[in-house]
Design a protein that fits this description.
With 687 residues, this protein is α+β, with helices and mostly antiparallel strands. Helices cover 43% and strands 24% of the residues. The protein contains 20 helices and 22 strands. It has a five-stranded antiparallel β-sheet with strand order 2-1-5-4-3. A hairpin with a 5-residue loop joins strand 9 (220-232) and strand 10 (238-247). Helix 15 packs across helix 16 (521-531). The longest helix has 69 residues, at 392-460. It is elongated, with a radius of gyration of 37 Å.
């Protein structure tokens, strides 16, 4: 801008009447001219003199760094801000968008600074935040080496990063605006396309989603592993979806090669009549190669027998040596070699040579036994001496001792790790939550006081000045007054929920308590339900599981809170598993018509006991296996899904630790109920 343009009366008149908030300053940062809109924006009176007044003196409450911005513009810098909260001359605070640029005289020399501004309404601020989200996400996309795209909530592509374009061998213009599952480099089956649509629908509801999909590019088969992260605003509304993934085809090829190598190894085992095995002491899980099934004369398609079931196949006269050898291996941590006989289902006897060794965790604890065994029956002479006879009582005693030790290891490992994790999480969350929680109520009180004062002003001055009316319209005052208390209410609910979760984590994590303590049964139930909440809440494919509580007025009871919470977790998890398994085969409408329910009831049980009932309306338990529910290592779940120890440990905790009773009543097709009865006062040790 030339000097003459900034100083002639005509230019002054044009600037003063400009609909834009604009002001011009000289090299000393003194005002040359300012528009009426600029005055209003920063709270200056229309008759207040501004010409020749330094910028810092016009509105002293404006941010100090603005003066530094103006000085940099005198050196040729052009700077701007998309939005900043400032205090005006009237004392009000407002969101202002501004821009600072140098202006030059007819010689080209910088003669001063042009300052423009604009007040932002609430809607404008929301649009600005969304734009800032967008720009931030674009920056993430540009710098990522992963396959990334930015989607609208309905799955349309807004942006694609260069890594994806190079991998796809396509141009950005050919992808933007397309639905994510219709991109031209992907050829996929109908089921894969449905899988992808379902993942995007879940992400659009605010859930983080991870999926693997198989796609085709010409003659190439590609496997993509990706996650979809929903990007939300401060109200929780999903603005964008951010899929991020990578090509795992090479990894899949390696996995296939490993699978082929394993197949070759199994074939070699079959030829040599050698089988491999592994036993997880902590979980009870057993892994057998196919050849061991053949050696034992068992069907390959069946689940590997548990440790106890395997022991039943060993010749009774050799069973004690078998238990003793494994016992010494676990506790002395020595490798072993052993010969013993087995009885096949057809009652034929086979001679077995076995070698095994202990495997340790990172902490040095023995967690697994692994080894090989070989059928050496053809090498044994039929007149070979037989092992000495063993007393059945000694055999039974050793077997019980080994089972008890195993259960103890499993229980301690599982609950100690869970307790430490939950206690640590609760501790880390608690401090910042307390800070937010403590200040949130004060902030809400302050805002309510200000809103009440505003209401009094509106009543006392029903016809405000035109400037006030204009500013109220610009900031959408009516909406702000209505929405602000709701925002604080939502924030308070969120803070309350976090404190409730933290308290529940701390309650549930008391797993290392070894002394009898007074415990509130209802608190234990609530803390367990909160931890399981993610499995109970509604989902896109199911309306969730309903919890019905019928609590009676019961007193605190003596017991071990952490261990009792473990019982609640085991029983409730089993109920959820059963209901989820059934609901997988029902539609959303069918579940709504006949909802899945867990009913929890507490009551006094004369003369001095408390009774807790945990009942579900699931498929029930077959009659023929109900008598084995509390047996160690008995489970009806698939391999890797259950250890057969949850109910066994729960039974011991209730009967041995709490001197109570745990019974199960189940009717196939109607549901299952577990009833816990425990004394209010813990009896003295030895009773």
């Amino acid at each position: 801008m030339a000097q003459s343009a900034a100083s002639t009366p005509l230019s002054h008149l044009w600037i003063e009447q400009s609909p834009t908030a604009i002001a011009i300053f000289d090299r000393n940062l003194c005002c040359v001219v300012a528009s009426e809109r600029w005055r209003k924006l920063y709270g200056l009176n229309s008759d207040q003199a501004v010409q020749g007044v330094a910028f810092a003196q016009l509105v002293p409450s404006l941010p100090e760094h603005w003066t530094a911005v103006l000085r940099r513009s005198l050196s040729g810098s052009h700077e701007s801000s998309d939005g900043e909260v400032v205090t005006l001359a009237s004392g009000k605070r407002a969101w202002v968008q501004w821009e600072s640029s140098p202006w030059r005289d007819e010689t080209g020399a910088i003669a001063g600074v042009i300052w423009c501004g604009m007040a932002l309404t609430q809607q404008k601020r929301r649009e600005l935040r969304q734009q800032q989200h967008y720009e931030t996400l674009r920056m993430i996309l540009d710098h990522s080496v992963q396959l990334m795209a930015l989607l609208s909530p309905d799955g349309r592509i807004l942006e694609v990063n260069n890594t994806t374009l190079v991998w796809a061998r396509l141009q950005r213009e050919s992808l933007v605006g397309m639905l994510f599952w219709d991109v031209p480099w992907w050829e996929m089956s109908v089921s894969m396309q449905a899988k992808l649509k379902g993942a995007i629908a879940k992400a659009a509801n605010g859930e983080w989603v991870q999926r693997d999909i198989t796609v085709y590019r010409g003659d190439e088969v590609k496997t993509l592993s990706f996650s979809i992260t929903p990007i939300t605003d401060e109200r929780g509304q999903v603005l964008y979806l951010l899929p991020e993934g990578h090509d795992v085809s090479d990894r899949k090829a390696v996995e296939q090669a490993l699978a082929q190598s394993e197949a070759n190894w199994l074939a070699a085992q079959k030829i040599a009549h050698v089988g491999s095995w592994e036993w997880n002491i902590l979980t009870g899980h057993v892994t057998w190669s196919d050849e061991i099934f053949r050696i034992y004369g068992l069907p390959i398609e069946q689940t590997p027998p548990s440790f106890d079931e395997q022991a039943q196949h060993i010749h009774p006269d050799d069973r004690q040596r078998f238990y003793t050898t494994l016992y010494n291996t676990i506790y002395r941590e020595d490798p072993y070699s052993l010969e013993f006989r087995i009885l096949r289902p057809d009652q034929s006897i086979r001679y077995i040579y076995a070698q095994g060794q202990p495997l340790r965790t990172d902490t040095g604890e023995v967690s697994h036994l692994a080894g090989v065994l070989m059928d050496i029956s053809d090498r044994k002479h039929p007149d070979a001496p037989q092992p000495p006879q063993v007393s059945p009582l000694e055999l039974e005693k050793l077997q019980r001792e080994l089972q008890r030790t195993q259960s103890h290891l499993i229980q301690n490992e599982k609950m100690s790790s869970l307790g430490q994790l939950l206690a640590g999480v609760a501790h880390e969350i608690n401090n910042p939550v307390n800070f937010i929680y403590g200040n949130l109520r004060h902030a809400e009180d302050y805002v309510n006081d200000i809103l009440n004062l505003l209401s009094l002003y509106q009543k006392g001055y029903p016809q405000p000045h035109a400037d006030i009316v204009e500013e109220a319209e610009a900031m959408d005052l009516e909406f702000l007054v209505d929405d602000l208390p709701q925002i604080f209410s939502s924030m308070q609910m969120g803070a309350d929920r976090i404190k409730e979760i933290v308290a529940s984590l701390r309650t549930f994590s008391r797993t290392d308590e070894t002394e009898v303590k007074s415990m509130n049964l209802h608190d234990g139930i609530e803390s367990t339900l909160i931890i399981l909440q993610n499995r109970l809440k509604p989902r896109s494919e199911s309306p969730g599981i309903q919890i019905i509580k019928q609590y009676s007025n019961i007193p605190p009871i003596d017991g071990y809170p952490g261990q009792f919470n473990q019982v609640l977790m085991n029983i409730l998890s089993n109920a959820i598993d059963a209901l989820e398994e059934r609901d997988q085969h029902r539609t959303y409408a069918e579940i709504e018509a006949d909802p899945s329910i867990i009913k929890i009831t507490t009551a006094l049980h004369p003369p001095n006991h408390v009774e807790l009932s945990l009942a579900d309306n699931g498929p029930g338990i077959p009659t023929e296996i109900q008598s084995r529910l509390f047996d160690e290592f008995f489970t009806t779940k698939p391999v890797g899904k259950g250890t057969g120890l949850g109910l066994s440990i729960s039974y011991k905790i209730i009967t041995e630790r709490h001197h109570g009773e745990l019974v199960c009543q189940s009717t196939p097709g109607q549901g299952t109920e577990f009833i816990i009865t425990i004394p209010i006062q813990h009896p003295p040790d030895g009773d």
